[in-house]
Amino acid sequence: MQCPFCGHRESKVIDSRHSDSSSIRRRRECEQCKRRFTTYEKIEMAPLMVIKKDSNREIFDRGKIKYGIIKACEKRPVSNEDIEKLVHDIEINIKSKYSGEVESKVIGEMVMDGLKELDEVAYIRFASVYRQFKDRSTFVSELQNIITEKDD
Length: 152
Fold this sequence. Notes:
Layout: E1 11-20, E2 23-30, E3 36-42, E4 49-51, E5 57-59, H1 62-72, H2 80-97, E6 101-103, H3 104-118, H4 120-130, H5 136-151
Parallel strand pairs: 4-6
Antiparallel strand pairs: 1-2, 2-3, 4-5
Helix pairs in contact: 1-2, 1-4, 2-3, 3-4
């Protein structure tokens, strides 16, 4: 590992700890200048590809999920921790069930299921965009479904 201070290529590991589920934090000391620095090692896996509605493929991006959830929860009493937990749960669920490719509609359904539990108004906001409600009757129908589920 190259020292960020002097550029020397030799360093020794002083301490190693697991940072999260997929990375290791290492504290290192340069053998030449004796300064210490921290490195993080992440497990690199093959990227998960998302198959879009138009059959194009793109790399899975948790940021897009988070952005959609944040927009749906705007001006609602939903904490950042709740949003982050939902995004994390969806990401873990996707990565545990799908190894190479996943359809965007699967991700959208997971987001809607999570939002339905988190905040019904945010769910309706997300569903109206995701399902592309064309008129108010479709919107009212979805509201009726939520009311019926809640009464059961």
